[in-house]
Design goal:
By secondary structure, the protein is α+β, with helices and mostly antiparallel strands. It contains 4 helices and 7 strands; from the N terminus they run E-H-H-E-E-E-E-E-E-H-H. The protein starts with a strand and ends with a helix.
């Protein structure tokens, strides 16, 4: 199992930041390779809801199942993302710091296949770099938005 963290400060209030973070329309603009998401079970943005997400990664389309395990509006998300070759768990915390919002994401990835288990250090580095880039893009989009 590998672990990595990402932090970003967004110059918008926590309510706005949290809402936009979960907005499906916004995801298409900040998640690298995002092709779409659909809800399979439960209510949107509620604990135990299950989504199917399509991500283009490394030349192929990956079908990933995303489960919202915990949802504490404006405070915390606990997310599990599962693919046939790996599973990740992410805890995403939102803190109001004056006018801004600090987002802290801690993720763990576990390989499910021998191939991914062997490549876990490389996969971890790729995902960590991708997360950093995506969160910076999210920050720019949110701060540029006038609402």
């Amino acid at each position: 199992m590998a672990k990595f963290s990402t932090k970003v400060q967004v110059n918008k209030p926590v309510e706005h930041t949290f809402d936009r973070f979960l907005d499906e329309q916004t995801m298409a603009h900040w998640i690298t390779g995002f092709k779409g998401i659909e809800i399979l079970r439960g209510e949107p943005r509620e604990p135990d809801s299950l989504y199917r997400m399509m991500i283009h990664f490394n030349g192929e389309d990956l079908l990933i199942y995303q489960k919202l395990i915990e949802v504490h509006p404006n405070e915390k998300l606990l997310v599990e993302m599962e693919h046939p070759e790996f599973v990740t768990w992410s805890e995403i915390l939102f803190y109001q710091t004056g006018f801004a919002t600090q987002i802290e994401c801690t993720s763990k990835i576990q390989g499910k296949t021998f191939r991914v288990k062997l490549a876990l250090p490389l996969v971890k580095n790729i995902l960590e770099s991708r997360n950093e880039k995506d969160y910076q893009v999210f920050k720019k989009i949110i701060e540029k938005n006038k609402d």
